Each structure stands twice: as C-alpha cells, then as structure tokens.
From TrEMBL:
Domain of life, source organism: Bacteria
Residue ranges of the TM segments: none
Gene3D superfamilies in alphabetical order: 3.40.630.30
SUPFAM superfamilies: Acyl-CoA N-acyltransferases (Nat)
Signal peptide (from-to): none
All copies of domain N-acetyltransferase, residue ranges: 14-158
Annotated InterPro entries: Acyl_CoA_acyltransferase, GNAT_dom
Name assigned to this protein: GCN5-related N-acetyltransferase
C-alpha cells in the first residue's frame, strides 16, 4: 500500500472517480463546454491534447506524486455518477509529512458557480485532513488567474506568498505562482464554511 491509493469520493453535487483512459471522451466534451483551453491563464488541455494529459497524470500516479480524479456530476435520481465535468488531483504528494497540494483542477463552464467546486474541495480536504492526517494542504495558482485566487481565498485558505518567475506556461512565458494553504487547526472552520455554502444551495 502507498500513502495514497485510488479511491472514489462522493459528495452532494459531484463524484470524484479515479482517472481512467475511458473518461477521455467525456473530458473532451467537458473542456469543449466553454472552450476552456483558450483561457491563457489556465492549463486546461485541448481536445487534441486530452489523451496525452490523461497519460501524463496517470504516469505521475505511478510515480507516487499525483492522485488524479475525474469529476462527475452526481445524478440526483440514482445517486450515482452522471456526466463528466472536469478533473482534479492531489499532487506534489509528500508522504513523509504527510502533505498534499490540491490542484490541476478545471470544470466545464456550464457548472461553474453551481456548487460543484466547493463540493469537490470539501471532499478532498476532508479526506486529506480526516483520513490521511495531513497537517497542511496547499493550493497554487497563476498570479493573473484572479478567478482561481478568489475561489481559493473563499475556501478559507491563507496566502503564504508569491513565487516570482516560478515556472513557464505552455507558451513559454514565465509565471508568478501564488501559494495558499490550510492548516489542520483551521480545517474545522473551513469545513463549516464549505458546508454552509452547500447548505444554502440545497
């Protein structure tokens, strides 16, 4: 057994399933919903790149540095998995601490603002803190991705700092990376905030 084994997490709006090559067509349709790969400040694979991105994430899973998920809507009638809406991961896994980053996340444009993102984050954070025993969970995003920065802050994460000229984007430009984290003692308040947001949506 490794620190993180593939598993399925079920919430109120979404189901997080272990990423599988069979999810390819659904992920392509999800990315086409809003043509997300055209947003220059994100790293959403285009339809032509999707198979390669699935292989990349599964290779990192084999190396023990990532646990990738496919995000599906929860079918309200059956309680089972509905259509594919995106991807998310545990990444930069540090089993010794233990510590994880939640990232490489994107959702179809039509479900943004519907509660799928806070539900997904609640599932991943609860598992990280309450099952894996992480003392901290990290988030990173592009300095210019204001939507992502605001969403991370709404979770209750605190900004640790900015890594200047930290990495290169797909077009070769240097990006500044904003680092956020939630600590174990902050988790009960963050959990309460996420549950409140989901309760308000019904």
């Amino acid at each position: 057994m490794t620190f993180l084994e593939p598993l399925t997490l079920t919430g109120r709006h979404v189901i997080l399933e272990p990423l599988h090559p069979a999810h390819h067509d659904g992920l392509v349709q999800a990315a086409e919903d809003g043509e997300l790969w055209k947003l220059w400040y994100t790293s959403v694979p285009s339809p032509a790149e999707m198979a390669g991105e699935i292989r990349r994430r599964l290779a990192l899973q084999e190396q023990g540095s990532m646990l990738p998920f496919t995000t599906r809507l929860l079918d309200p009638e059956t309680g089972g998995p509905g259509r594919v809406i995106g991807m998310t991961t545990y990444m930069n896994i540090d089993a010794a601490t233990p510590r994880v980053e939640i990232g490489s996340t994107w959702n179809a444009a039509s479900v943004q603002g519907t509660g799928t993102n806070p539900d997904s984050k609640l599932l991943l954070l609860r598992h990280a803190f309450e099952t894996l025993g992480c003392p901290a969970v990290e988030f990173r995003t592009h300095w210019l991705n204001h939507q992502s920065r605001e969403a991370i802050a709404r979770l209750g994460a605190k900004q640790d700092g900015v890594l200047r000229s930290h990495s290169r984007t797909s077009d070769g430009l240097l990006r500044d990376t904003v680092v956020f984290s939630i600590l174990e003692h902050e988790w009960p308040m963050v959990r309460a905030g996420l549950e409140y947001r989901l309760d308000r949506r019904g």
